[in-house]
């Protein structure tokens, strides 16, 4: 197992230990979350842990189902007590860039609905400033050409339409396209998030502001660091 995956597995295991009997748990999407699902599934199978989980993607539905984790939709009656999800970048304030796995819209909905949102990541995801990882933008397919043109004019950034291996556009579970924006450095993520959201055709951004209460950062030696938002 690579050093990166050791960190992911360690963080996922610690996160699974936060889940208590009777909880509604939001489950994110991505490679780190896979380890959380497996650790949580083992608890369900061996301890008889009684939970309900809200998945953020069809990929998470499939993996959680394989581990026997009961799934429910997000409703006013099933708001998560705890949501666990990964991140592509996390700064000291625990502002995040997410969406590398394509599920940013549902991930933000489930994170925002949770009583507590905990992020799991390997140590490479901790950064001083957001932006080295291209910022995902979920866009209505019809609007992609006009949104891309407006982004070039207003932000001097060249969006990249996310594609599959066969060259076809990547389509999210909600039927959206994703534009990846290589900003390089995002000094004021909250302001950028607001400016992007007013563009007609943009559904959601991969900037997560003020949602994460804690970061479980997994290191190559298997150690997991608890990090809280800096003031």
Automatic annotation (TrEMBL):
It catalyses: aldehydo-D-ribose 5-phosphate = D-ribulose 5-phosphate. Keywords: Isomerase. GO terms for cellular component: cytosol. GO terms for biological process: D-ribose metabolic process; pentose-phosphate shunt, non-oxidative branch. Substrate binds at residues 29-32, 85-88, 98-101, 125. One of its GO terms (molecular function) is ribose-5-phosphate isomerase activity. Gene3D superfamilies: 3.30.70.260, 3.40.50.1360. Pathway: Carbohydrate degradation; pentose phosphate pathway; D-ribose 5-phosphate from D-ribulose 5-phosphate (non-oxidative stage): step 1/1. Its EC number is 5.3.1.6. CDD domains: RPI_A (cd01398). SUPFAM superfamilies: D-ribose-5-phosphate isomerase (RpiA), lid domain, NagB/RpiA/CoA transferase-like. The active site is at residue 107. The keyword Isomerase applies. It is an enzyme of class 5 (isomerase). InterPro entries: NagB/RpiA_transferase-like, Ribose5P_isomerase_typA_subgr, Ribose5P_isomerase_type_A. Homodimer. Belongs to the ribose 5-phosphate isomerase family. Catalyzes the reversible conversion of ribose-5-phosphate to ribulose 5-phosphate. PANTHER family: RIBOSE-5-PHOSPHATE ISOMERASE. This is Ribose-5-phosphate isomerase A. It comes from Armatimonas rosea. The gene is rpiA.
